[in-house]
Amino acid sequence: MADTTGTAGPSELDDRQLLDRHAAALDLFTDRVHAIGADQWDAPTPCADWSVHDLVDHLNTEQLWVPPLVRDGATIASVGDAFDGDLLGPDPVASWDTASAAAQEAFRAPGALYRTVHLSFGDTAADFYCGQMITDLVVHAWDLSRAIGADETLPDDLVAFSLGEITPYAADLAKSGLFAPAVEPPRDADAQTRLLSLLGRRV
Prior knowledge:
By secondary structure, the chain is mainly alpha-helical. The protein has helices at residues 10-34, 52-71, 76-79, 92-108, 126-148, 156-166, 170-175, 191-198; strands spanning 116-119, 122-125.
């Protein structure tokens, strides 16, 4: 229901905050993509067996999935192999800019966060999916920063959000085999180090 009093209700405020974080996470990763040197696309990253090109292609593909899943209500099966393979093309930066803009538009459409998305592990609330995407962007922004020698400092608010988002199911991610096991952070570790350690990054 539209707010007619001039003051947003609690759910609208939550939605706005989530979308603002999503926009900030996209901006963070976009900034790092635009900083990649012409000779750095084949450089290694903290992600095992992934080059800078592979990392950006992974995130690019993740963004391409958002419009069909969130806007169109598509399933993994109905999309099929449309997003298989290298989709960055001859201009990786332009491909990223296009895909990220489309993902942001899909999440910002009226009512989008209240929809159900059909993910590989089952039907999921779109706002939860958005939260996952934020965390993915934030952590991989650090990976990309380390790979290209950019500033590795992540925004405090995005780190706090991602840490709260990922902590409840971090162990399940490691069990899936798709993520490195968590490493023990130093006793006095800051929030960024705890987040990265939780996802197997050695800072």
